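Two folds, back to back.
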Amino acid sequence: VIAFKQCICYNYHKESAQNEGSACFYGFKKQEVVRVKITVAMDSFKGSLSSMMAGQAVSDGILRVYPEAEVQVRPLADGGEGTVEALVCGMGGKEERITVTGPVGEPVECSYGMIEKNGTAVIEMSGAAGITLVPEKDRNPMYTTTYGVGEVIRDAVQKGLTGEHFGRLTVQNK
């Protein structure tokens, strides 16, 4: 999503002596200046760029063409990869990192977001039990586990958080 807002402002500059009398307003010439305000909100590029990294790359390109533009980069996610980072960044939270039981029983590093101002944990199940954590030869749901997701939830609850977000589903414990 890229939103453009164009503002037309007018700068007045002192007219030179030779042009005096032409289209002047009390000795000043009207000059139109276009100011562009742009908001960039990009989803992540799976496995390569985070939402903010992609947005910053777009912002850099815009500023090369329109150096006077006012560009704001905002995080965006669709409920999959990058959701924790986008929500944590957008809502002023912080990221927690813990070690949990991975889908094949081995320890994995997992992160989740903490939004303390509203008592919410933002959890990506894929961080603890995602298919990318399972070697191809072991991709059988009869032999994998989501136990690590429960460990993430337990860690968040122990830290006093009262709500969890799973992809697009929100569960509030109030």
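---
second:
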Amino acid sequence: DDIYVTDEHYRAEAPLLDVHIPAIKQIRARSGGGSVTVADPSIWARRAKFVHFTDQSLGDILGSEGIYCLSANNDRLSGWEAIHSALYAKRLHVFESCTNLIEELASGVGSSAKVNELDGACSDHALDALRYGLMHLGGPRTAKKTGTPPPNSGMALLNEMKSRRILRERFSWN
């Protein structure tokens, strides 16, 4: 099945109640309410970095606002493989409105220290969200660890994608 990434919300260090929750609700309303929110498992940790003056987790606060999240499969290696598989099979369609995801796909650089990881200096929030979504939709469940990224691995593909020309060949632009 084809996968369509139609929208994104991307804003660092903004207030949860004033910025993120209304934006998530708007995206869900535009999708007809049929969207699923898959989130990093860390949002259920108490006393998270961005939760002040409460004993609730980010997940609790989102839930109290009617935004119920599923805990993402945080297996990074399998997640990169899921991205690679979707790109290679030309099943992943990213709308041009998803500028942060497109930029991160184009600028992601593999880590020299960790196999199948991005360099720590690279922004990867949109890529993490894509990984979570693809794993939720049935990405690979297991992955073999190797000493170097195989030629068809997700990291090898991201390392290859250095120009918009390559991205435009791989994606369906809507």
